[in-house]
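Let us work through a complete example step by step.
Step 1: write down the sequence.
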Amino acid sequence: MLDGKITKLIVSDVRFPTSLEHHGSDAMHSDPDYSAAYVVLETDAENGFKGCGLTFTLGRGTEIVVCAVKALSPLVLGKRFGDIVNDFRGFYRLLTSDGQMRWIGPEKGVIHLATSAVLNAVWDLWAKMEGKPLWKLLVDMQPEQLVSCIDFRYITDVLTEKEALDILRKAQSGKEQREEKMLKIGYPAYTTSCAWLGYSDDHLRKLCAKAMEEGWTRFKVKVDADLQDDIRRCKLIREIIGPNNTLMIDANQRWNVDEAIKWVLSLAEFKPLWIEEPTSPDDILGHATISKALAHLGIGVATGEQCHNKVIFKQLLQAKAVQFVQIDSCRLGSVNENISVLLMANKFKVPVCPHAGGVGLCELVQHLILFDYITVSGSLENRMCEYVDHLHEHFKSPVIIKDAHYMPPQDAGYSTEMKEDSVKKYQFPDGEVWQELSSQMKCLT
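Step 2: predict the structure and record it as tokens.
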């Protein structure tokens, strides 16, 4: 029963000191502390379910997202849950189109991150109330219900409601077989855990060898510390993984357009499948120029983890600027907006390879990519989902990886619920872990 009124919204600033060991380090983010603005929704329903959601951050600035979540809370509190999900498009637009708050967006930046955290909590609550993992909730929906969750404003020149329905109806054929396949073997993954920019060669070598033993065949390397350094590291990894396994490179927005082309040409001998985030995430035409320049080498362009919204994805696809779409479960406006991007990517026949890692991103995005394969694209060609082996132990339903594949979650919800003890210990700045680190810093000074 989708009953109950939302009576409480709690938001926490949860940070993990990952910068101490250089986990997550790349060309633009040298000292990330993987963090989250973590939202819990409570209702007055007798079932006692809570909806948990989050958006991912890198430490400083998380407090700003927390403030934005609090600013959105009057739009959420007091709403009947059944009314929200029965007009999800309307509720999505309520959060993204507030006459005053949209001025600090619209649908981008801190306010959109906050919107994502709130909506992720709503989807988690819905899935729990239905007693299904989120991917299964989506797979079991009729095309008409799925489409009713999407706000098509600003994308109808590329994807109309009718076109979305046609894509979903066409994908109904073979859906049960694809679901069975996922339950049996899972969704293919690639690893980024081996080659963060701050890792030494010895550490990198050790992690790559271990990953090979565990069955990984797809590896991503962070680049742009220095060209000669990148050549050395790519050569090292290619030698370890061999000529037949897949290598990707990721610049995390470091380069200008011309610089990106020259740099990747210098790394082409290592046969990367794609260059990820070669330049500013807002530069659609820049991505198109890079894409065109690298096409003859068979090197694609991948981006999306910092694309503000569906409009940016629409333009990237229109401009043929990407060969791989990388949705993010906490950057866009939750499931609602991500479904619109999956449908647009399907129309343009561009594979989706989601961004994951961070705090909870693997847990969340696995649901979206399972939905994409079973209910939208029906294809695994050139498709894989990122996996990073950090911080899963803090979630009540952590991801399960088997033979380098994501195994479909079975617990009800969006896999977003964190362990209460973890939230308490890592809450910033008063949690036990941060108090301890603060004391250590005082001793050093």
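Step 3: interpret the result. The two ends are 57 Å apart (CA to CA).
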